[in-house]
Amino acid sequence: MKREGAYVVPFGFEELSYERAVTIAADTGKIVGEAGPLLETVIDMLDELGRPDEYFDCIQVAGTNGKTSTTRFTAAILRGEGLRTALYTSPQLVRYEERMEVDGGVVSPSAFAHGVSAAAEAGRRVNERRAASGEPTYTITPFDLLTAAAMVVFAEARVDVAVLEVGLGGRWDATSATDPVAVAITGIGLDHTHILGDTLEEIASEKAAVIKPGRTVVLGEGTHEPSVERVMRARCDACGVVPWVVEHMVIELPVGIDSAVSFSTETARSTYEVSMHKPAYQPQNAACAIALAEGYLGRPLDASSLAVSLESCPIPGRFDVVRPEPFVLVDACHNPQSCENFINAVREAEPEREARPVLLVAALSDKDVRGILDVLVPEFPRIVVSATASDRALPAGELAQLVYGELDALNRPHTDVIAIYPSVREALDALTEAGEPVIAAGTITLAGEVAGLLR
């Protein structure tokens, strides 16, 4: 049950500058203790902050693919239903405050800095107390810090409901320090295998942990793989929860990049007919969001408001044209499954492979790079290889060798690696000077760097 009244941080603290707040949020070495990272870290920080997350309802969205879009669609739908809605998502494309939205807009730099200031002081106070009692101090990760900060920002903004995207897994994710009233799991794929497990079943088990007794649960189309479905069903049975499973959708695909995709989806309370100018892979995410929002409200959605909410909902970094001339499109696909969805949308927009723009590709070393290349490389006649600024980036030379290996395996004499650049800026500058149209894909950080350079 939500607390009544206005939330106030229960202690005094230094207000950090925006620049200082970003520095702390970006650097894992700033707040390092002996224990962690642990979910208890965020729980104790929220307790220290007076549980700001109890001043509004929380909805949690987990999954490997589609969770960002589903989170955004859900927040947009609930806002269209008249609720003051917050959105928490990750990672940002360009600026850290993009992770937090209130009432459809990114929070201000000052609000972001204020939230980080309060969260950082809460972490300091918790660790000071633990050290005094002889307990190991917590390692506070950037995601821990930003999650606690977002809860402060949302509570002070007096939102009705916050839709929270899980950062990693589900069981130990920082967003799980809250007590959501409704959850959705969009789909499961092999991602972060060094942390979550090597099989779909192991990864599904980590994400299914967000299902708990008493919660509304929606399972997206991406959970239908038999081994994943067994894990989800077993978790629901153990929690005494009957999930709503998104299925039996009817989709009419667009005929071009500017055409609308239409679909119908059935929920527990209604059937919705929707048309929206979004990529062909988005209906399954929108359908999951529709079921989640309806389940939270406990009533059917207003059809006219739904149409406006979905059409106007921005999905940064997803089939996103960031410059019309020379044309640059970015997509944050970052594993084989999301890359397949992206390529299907590319095929719809430009059926002729030889007419497609240059592919600018980069990858992170802890991802399934070979699987990503298997999907992306065959679909483009020309490729430029680069590396993002992330400390997890695969160096451009190493990625190029993998691309060459993929082309040899495919026997693709008509695909050219036209250049290799050590940085995204150098690659984009060269392609812009040449007037080349570009599609950038392979990792979220690539989409973010390109968008940041052009917007």
UniProtKB/TrEMBL annotation:
Pfam families: Mur_ligase_C, Mur_ligase_M
Domain Mur ligase C-terminal residue range list: 317-436
Classification via InterPro entries: Folylpolyglutamate_synth, Mur-like_cat_sf, Mur_ligase_C, Mur_ligase_C_dom_sf, Mur_ligase_cen
Domain of life according to the entry: Bacteria
GO MF annotation, one: dihydrofolate synthase activity
GO cellular component: cytoplasm
Domain Mur ligase central intervals: 61-212
EC number(s) per entry: 6.3.2.17
Annotated signal peptide: none
Tagged with keyword Transmembrane: no
Catalysed transformations (reactions): (6S)-5,6,7,8-tetrahydrofolyl-(gamma-L-Glu)(n) + L-glutamate + ATP = (6S)-5,6,7,8-tetrahydrofolyl-(gamma-L-Glu)(n+1) + ADP + phosphate + H(+)
Record key words, sorted: ATP-binding, Ligase, Magnesium, Metal-binding, Nucleotide-binding
Catalytic class of the enzyme: ligase
SUPFAM superfamilies xrefs: MurD-like peptide ligases, catalytic domain (SSF53623), MurD-like peptide ligases, peptide-binding domain (SSF53244)
Family recorded in the similarity comment: Belongs to the folylpolyglutamate synthase family.
NCBIfam families linked to this entry: folC
Protein name: tetrahydrofolate synthase
Species in which this protein is naturally found: Collinsella intestinalis DSM 13280
Gene of this entry: folC
